[in-house]
Design a protein that fits this description.
The protein is of the alpha/beta class and about 375 residues long. Helix content is about 40%, strand content about 15%. It has a single domain, classed as Aldolase class I (TIM Barrel). The chain has 13 helices and 10 strands. This is hydroxymethylglutaryl-CoA lyase.
Length: about 375
């Protein structure tokens, strides 16, 4: 069994960490946003931490910890969560146990879950789980609310061979019947295109390759195509150039951005893509992530950093020192709406899961929020209770 490599002492530590954290973590559900996705200023964030964020970890993580991560993310207000992958554990060991994870997660209103399925076998495994029990006396937990599957390919043959042992064209041929069967089963299908800027094996990527692969995914039924800067080499200029080419044949409204933060440009790339018209972005709490087939690539852009970049100015409060005659100044404020996401809770989650993994969160916004909270608590402690 894959998880037998986790020692009993390690498991006890993880459980202790979980229980301790839960004491200070509210389980009340957030007020749901009534914002419609038709709002031109609404930005959908797809949380990929439980799948893309954990797939490159060196040690196995027990399914109860993964499920707790997913539940906390849902409580924080995230409405689109990628919960795992039905890929062979031989190739991605960390994704073993996805069926157990799905059985453990709770149901939250207006929260949709997706899973990655690399092939027909992966889809078959998912559909078996989603099939309701036919026994009238069954007391089994209802199937999880998985509403969509994700399929993936890449923009270069070199990366495709390294990832799935087949060319890009061969990959698309394999995926077509998977997409068709998922759609027939009532699931939405989302497509991923890896290495849209640079490939770790073949170098700079021709944007026309990204365009053609994206078009193929849309034609096979993908309602959305996420463009992955897998190596994190992208810059605002290269992202815009790639999007300009893809948009020649694919509607911008069907495109999403998936930017790794290897060189610290992910947030800038998101702002560029927003300006271009994209309204959906993948992110990973605490900046978790990396790609086992992209040597040197660091984590996905941190969800906390994305939320702060889009809405953080609302945390500033009123102007503290009046100017001139004291008349209040009209200050510009971000127009973006990310729904009911609670940034403070996200920062807590990023710190918690990073601690479970034995390191610090890489989210800059998360670190800053937690540091400010610690300073405020220390100040209040020194001042003492007010009489």
């Amino acid at each position: 069994m894959l998880y037998s490599s986790v020692t009993s002492s390690c498991t006890r530590i993880l459980r202790s960490t979980l229980k301790t954290s839960l004491k200070s973590f509210s389980t009340s559900q957030p007020t749901l946003s009534t914002t419609s996705s038709t709002n031109p200023n609404f930005v959908k964030i797809v949380e990929v931490g439980p799948r893309d964020g954990l797939q490159n970890e060196p040690k196995p993580i027990p399914p109860p910890i993964k499920a707790e991560l997913i539940n906390r993310l849902a409580i924080s207000g995230l409405r689109n969560i990628e919960a795992g992958s039905f890929v062979s554990p031989k190739w991605v060991p960390q994704m073993a146990g996805t069926a157990e994870v799905l059985a453990l997660i709770d149901s939250f209103p207006k929260t949709g879950y997706s899973v990655l399925v690399p092939n027909q076998k992966g889809l078959d495994d998912l559909l078996e789980i989603l099939s309701p029990s036919i026994s009238p006396n069954s007391h089994a937990k209802p199937p999880p609310s998985v509403t969509e599957v994700a399929i993936f390919t890449s923009a270069t043959d070199a990366f495709s061979f390294a990832n799935t042992n087949v060319s890009v064209s061969g990959s698309l041929e394999r995926l077509a019947p998977v997409a068709r069967r998922a759609l027939d089963a009532g699931l939405k299908v989302r497509g991923y295109v890896s290495v849209v800027v640079t490939c770790p094996f073949s170098g700079r990527v021709d944007p026309r390759r990204v365009r053609d692969v994206s078009r193929e995914l849309v034609q096979m039924g993908c309602y959305e195509v996420s463009l992955g800067d897998t190596t994190g080499a992208g810059t605002p200029a290269s992202i815009r150039g790639m999007l300009e080419e893809v948009a020649k044949e694919v509607d911008v409204g069907t495109l999403a951005g998936h930017f790794h933060d290897t060189n610290g440009t992910a947030t800038a790339n998101i702002m560029t893509a927003l300006d271009f018209g994209l309204r959906t972005f993948d992110a990973s709490v605490g900046g978790l992530g990396g790609c086992p087939y992209s040597p040197g690539a660091t984590g996905n852009v941190a969800t906390e950093d994305v939320v702060y970049a889009l809405t953080g100015d609302r945390l500033f409060g009123d102007i503290g020192e009046p100017y001139g005659n004291g008349e209040p100044s009209e200050t510009a404020q971000s127009r973006w709406d990310v729904g009911p996401i609670d940034l403070a809770r996200l920062a807590e989650i990023g710190e918690w899961i990073s601690g479970v993994l034995g390191r610090e969160t890489t989210s800059r916004a998360g670190k800053a929020l937690l540091a400010r909270r610690k300073r405020e608590e220390e100040r209040k402690r020194k001042e003492g209770p007010k009489l």
